[in-house]
TrEMBL record:
PROSITE patterns xref list: TPP_ENZYMES
The entry's keywords: Thiamine pyrophosphate
The UniProt record lists the keyword Transcription: no
Organism: Kiloniella antarctica
Designated name of the protein: 5-guanidino-2-oxopentanoate decarboxylase
SUPFAM superfamilies in UniProt: DHS-like NAD/FAD-binding domain, Thiamin diphosphate-binding fold (THDP-binding)
Domain Thiamine pyrophosphate enzyme central, first and last residues per copy: 191-324
Length: 537
């Protein structure tokens, strides 16, 4: 058994069922035995696509997305996807080749040579590990999955020299010691202090971020016990449905939400960086928490970033919130005041009035998608309607609003990530919402969608260029340059790949177009001209 064959068996033992990658001469030995395994391989048209597929798969499945990439350009191509996953705390395992042990570090011009791959990958991963002996591989994998299962998840990079891939691995164990790792829980003393603060608060507030991966009922029960509105950041949307009286699916960058925070005497922030892409999107510096701030995060280094905590709870969010809920005084429903629901309703109403008429039309468009395809996962790129939805929108289920317009904020994310999301949840509708600029980063992945037989619905929001950047230029008295693009007939390109495709002729025909897309039972593309959703004068 070669080390490449051993890797596949080891991945199987960690319950990996899919890998994403493009085989090359520097990874071909890692593919030996793959066809005979239970693992399904998906081939993108670019390694960046492999990373974004793995990202979408991980966000929806909760399992790490695994990628196989070649030495040098394979790793540099996937780097953007790793950086997005790093920024958003997404588990991803990237296994790359590297040149032969004797050829490393000499700069002799070997094929795919990088001076130091691990140093490069360390900037966008929790750790980067270079295998120098076959016995290193099981240890490196154990470290990776321990991190995924018990701490802040982020990408991990493992590189294997091409001469070791074919080395004998008969002496290595075919299974590892699989045992559940105890996730950290906030200390009982800190929990008791938080319970006292929250119980005595006259105007408590919950802010929940994408770092909360646990049972939604715990958040709901705690909010109802405190009679506290729940502000959900972009990556937490759907944690409570919009119709829940305490739900606030709106950005803390908006003045109305900031007023709610300012009026709260105790703020409990769970699994959120309190970072600018959620809390200070316009970089005005006006985000503040004047009341007592309790922060709950599994990463102790995060507790005092952006807004220092008055009380720190370091531990797994679900375990720690469960302990906090048990420590709270029992409150019967009839004794719960209605102030929290009243505040949440006012915020939702006023938030919509803060937004422009164009934005409100875009929110109505998103709500139409929810209504037409219940339970849909909307995977977005950095495009106008996604920016608007990040300000105010809630999917009807959790893990239903995923996009790259926060954190690293890359273009070209949505199409590949939507394929990964559909592979993770085949029964849920998956909508890729991407601009005409963003989809031109990854048009080739239309073929990957067909290969993977993933019936996603791709909505191309066409405004003939980088409209958001153009508007920013105009607002800042900069003559627009480089933002007007020649856009192809996306529907014709999609049809050439074998997709169901059409141009939306009228905003009133959206539901019918979605029904036609679903009925095709294959990937479908609908080109939408942005002007169809301009506000009516």
């Amino acid at each position: 058994m070669t080390l490449g064959e051993y890797l596949i068996k080891l991945l199987e033992s960690y319950d990996v069922d899919r890998v994403f990658g493009i085989p090359g001469v520097h990874t071909v030995e890692l593919y030996r035995g793959l066809a005979q395994s239970k693992i399904i391989h998906h081939t993108p048209r670019h390694e960046q696509g492999a990373g974004f597929m793995a990202d979408g798969y991980a966000r929806v499945s909760g399992k790490p997305g695994v990628c196989l990439v070649i030495t040098g350009p394979g790793l540099t191509n996937i780097a953007t996807a790793m950086a997005q996953a790093y920024a958003d705390s997404i588990p991803m395992l990237v296994i790359s080749g590297v040149n032969r042990l004797k050829d490393q570090g000499h700069g002799n011009g070997h094929l795919h040579e990088l001076p130091n791959q691990t140093a490069f990958a360390e900037q966008i991963s929790a750790f980067s590990y270079s295998v120098t002996d076959p016995t290193d591989l099981p240890q490196a994998m154990a470290r990776a999955f321990a991190l995924f299962n018990s701490s802040r998840p982020r990408p991990v990079h493992i590189e294997i020299p091409i001469d070791l891939m074919s080395a004998c691995a008969d002496h290595l164990p075919l299974s590892h010691n699989v045992f559940p790792l105890d996730k950290p829980q906030a200390s009982s003393q800190a929990i008791a202090q938080a319970a006292e603060l929250c119980s005595n608060a006259s105007a408590p507030l919950l802010i929940v971020g994408g770092g909360y991966k646990g049972d939604h009922a715990i958040v709901r029960e705690l909010a109802e016990a405190l009679d506290s509105p729940v502000v959900m950041t972009v990556n937490a949307r759907g944690l409570l449905p919009e119709e829940h009286p305490l739900a606030v699916p709106a950005s803390p960058s908006l003045s109305t939400v900031r007023e709610l925070i300012a009026q709260s005497d105790v703020v409990l922030a769970v699994g959120t960086e309190l970072g600018p892409t959620d809390f200070d999107m316009y970089y005005d510096g006006n985000f503040a928490v004047p009341g007592s701030l309790i922060r709950l995060d599994i990463d102790p280094t995060q507790i005092h970033r952006n807004a220092p905590a008055d009380l720190a709870l370091v531990g797994d969010a679900e375990l720690s919130l469960s302990a906090l809920l048990l420590s709270m005084p029992k409150i019967s429903p009839q004794n719960i005041a209605s102030k929290g629901a009243q505040k949440a309703a006012i915020v939702k109403d006023r938030t919509r009035s803060e937004l422009t008429p164009e934005m409100n039309r875009q929110i109505e468009f998103l709500q139409q998608l929810n209504k037409a395809l219940p339970g849909a996962i909307i995977v977005g790129d950095s495009t106008q309607v996604i920016y608007t939805g990040n300000l105010y929108f809630s999917p009807d289920q959790s893990k239903g609003w995923i996009n790259s317009a926060t954190g690293f904020g890359t273009l070209g994310y949505a199409l590949s990530a939507a394929i990964g999301a559909k592979l993770a949840s085949p029964k849920r509708p998956v909508i890729c919402l991407v601009g005409d600029g963003g989809i031109q980063f990854t048009l080739g992945e239309l073929g990957a969608a067909m290969d993977a037989q993933t019936p996603i619905i791709i909505l191309v929001w066409n405004n003939n260029g980088y409209r958001e950047i153009k508007s920013f230029m105009v607002d800042n008295q900069i003559t627009p340059e480089g933002v007007d693009l020649s856009t192809p007939d996306f529907a014709a390109i999609a049809q050439a790949y074998g997709l169901q495709a059409e141009h939306l002729s009228s905003a009133d025909d959206l539901i019918n177009a979605l029904e036609r897309a679903v009925a095709s039972q294959k990937p479908a593309l609908i080109q939408i001209e942005e002007h169809l959703y301009h506000s009516k004068k």
